[in-house]
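Sample entry follows:

:::
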Amino acid sequence: QVQLQESGPGLVKPSQTLSLTCTVFGDSITTNLYYWEWIRQSPWKGLEWMGAIDYKGTTYYSPSLKSRTSLSRDTAKTQFTLQLSSVTPEDTDVYYCVRGNSASIHYWGQGTKVPVSS
C-alpha cells in the first residue's frame, strides 16, 4: 500500500518561503516512470498543478509558478520537497503531494492547509 504524507509549517508569513515535505511509504521515489508531484487547491481557484520531480530527479514546473518554485528529493528518506518563495495571502491553499505517471494520478496525500498571514 502506497501512502504519501505531507508535513510542513502551520503558518507562513507574507514574503517568506513555504517549505513542504512529502514522505512516501510503500514505494521508492526512484521507481521507473513515476512522477512525484505537488498540487494545490483553493475554493476560488480549484486545483492547480505546481510541479513534479520524476524518478530520475528531473524537475518540471508550472510556467506560472516557475520563478518561485523549487522541488528537490532525498531518495534515502523517500522524501521530496516543495519550496515556494515570496508567498502572499493568495498562496493560502491546501497542498497535496501525489504520485502519478503520464496518464493519471495514482495516490494522493491527505493534504495540508497552509495559511499565509502576518
Q: What stands out?
A: The mean pLDDT is 95. The two ends are 39 Å apart (CA to CA).
